[in-house]
Write a structure and sequence with these properties.
The protein is of the alpha+beta class. It contains eleven helices and 21 strands.
């Protein structure tokens, strides 16, 4: 006997506490009261899908309404989040039901041509057409004694410490100024800044409250870092840890000054940073880059919901004119041949009957979308087929970008 099809409903605001309990159990990390209220503040019940069994929340998926920076532009993007299935209800197709319905609703609404998420496990979302678009570096390195940075090139700037909430408007102005230049960053309104800066004592794992380190240039704020420290001691002395959450800098002077400070905090001997970009300047500045202990990890996964709208929304590094044969078993409207034309100033994408020059699935387009994956690398992995010789070499540079995509928010 098979289980009946689940009833999927749009939750009400007062369903949030039940959803939070489900998420806490699924991720083995219950919300403390302050974190729960912060999450409630960004929850959009009308964009969520919920399954109950005998009144208990057993499966859930949601999306946040935000924009995403892409090469040369910003686009509305469904930030998929809060996805969980109860341990008692696994292997019943609930995740598949929620993901299929969510994608269908996103496509039919026509507002967001792409969806983006962080994956708890990399094997989960490719089957729904999500491709790994952004990778990150995790850094775990010695501080103070092992690493050296260049001396400052100028003395024009000054550093100061502040409570993050007290300087949130300044942080927001700098973040908004710079985020359009870096594919992979999401917009932050007031609700999101409150969420990002939420710092409940119960979630600090023995570390201090989060601090803001600000770099002031001649014309105002040019850089900041969000960080905390954790005291650790051995018989021979202090071995404290600096935990860096976020570094934003408008120029090399600000960047260097911030990192010189973070790597020389008194009574600390190690530093960790889990959201470094793969082209992070720190790799080129320290005297011994291998001491940074960089490890490559997945970050953002992207799904093209509306292929022509998504491909036309971004810019391309060089001129491109290519016909791509796309397959998308979940959203058949995306399946077919599409002619993409464009360059640094804009792009267009329309259905065509012309012969295809490349062929790939929609997941592959998600990997390419933010400029981080190479077209020829995907072809070498068998993910893209070249149907007209020479197309890879001609079109490949267009899909890249002058800055690697980078992760910022975990949502």
């Amino acid at each position: 006997m098979t289980d009946p099809a689940p009833t999927v409903v749009v939750p009400r605001p007062d369903d949030f506490d039940d959803i939070a309990e489900l998420l806490g159990d699924a991720f083995h990390d219950p919300y403390d009261p302050e974190s729960r209220e912060a999450a409630r503040g960004v929850f959009e019940p009308d964009r969520a899908l919920l399954v109950r069994d005998a009144g208990t929340a057993v499966a859930h998926a949601a999306a946040f309404t935000r924009t995403l920076s892409v090469p040369g532009a910003t686009v509305p993007a469904a930030h998929v989040t809060m996805v969980a299935v109860a341990t008692t209800h696994r292997r019943r197709g609930l995740l598949r039901t929620l993901m299929h319905r969510q994608l269908r609703e996103l496509h039919d609404a026509g507002r967001e041509p792409v969806a983006v998420l962080w994956a708890s496990e990399g094997r989960i979302y490719p089957r729904f057409g999500y491709g790994l678009a952004v990778q990150r570096l995790t850094l775990d390195c010695p501080a103070t004694t092992e690493l050296r940075l260049p001396e400052p090139t100028s003395a024009a700037g000054t550093l100061r410490l502040a409570a993050p909430a007290a300087v949130q408007p300044e942080l927001a102005r700098l973040y908004d100024r710079l985020r359009v230049e870096r594919p992979g960053w999401s917009d932050r309104d007031e609700r999101w800044w409150r969420y990002v800066l939420c710092d409940p004592p119960g979630a600090r794992d023995g570390a201090t409250a989060r601090r803001a380190l600000l770099y002031e240039g001649p014309d105002g704020l040019d850089g900041y870092a969000l960080w905390r420290s954790r005291p650790e001691w051995q018989r021979t002395g202090p071995t404290g840890l600096v935990q860096v959450d976020e570094v934003v800098a408008a120029d090399p002077d600000a960047y260097l000054a911030i990192w010189r400070t973070l790597l020389s905090v008194d009574l600390t001997r190690r530093l960790s940073y889990f959201r470094a970009a793969v082209d992070d300047p720190l790799l080129r500045l320290v005297n011994e880059p291998r001491q940074l202990g960089p490890q490559l990890m997945d970050a953002l996964w992207v799904r093209l919901v509306d292929v022509p709208a998504a491909l036309a929304a971004r810019r391309y590094a060089t001129a491109v004119d290519v016909v791509v044969e796309v397959t998308d078993p979940l959203l058949p409207e995306n399946t077919g041949r599409w002619r993409l034309t464009g360059g640094p100033q804009g792009a267009a994408c329309a259905r065509t009957d012309d012969p295809a020059e490349l062929a790939c699935d929609v997941r592959c387009l998600g990997e390419l979308y933010l400029g981080g994956a190479g077209l020829t690398a995907l072809a070498a992995a068998g993910r893209v087929r070249e149907l007209r010789p020479g197309t890879l070499a001609a079109a490949g540079p267009a899909f890249g970008w002058h800055r690697a995509p980078a992760p910022m928010d975990i949502f």
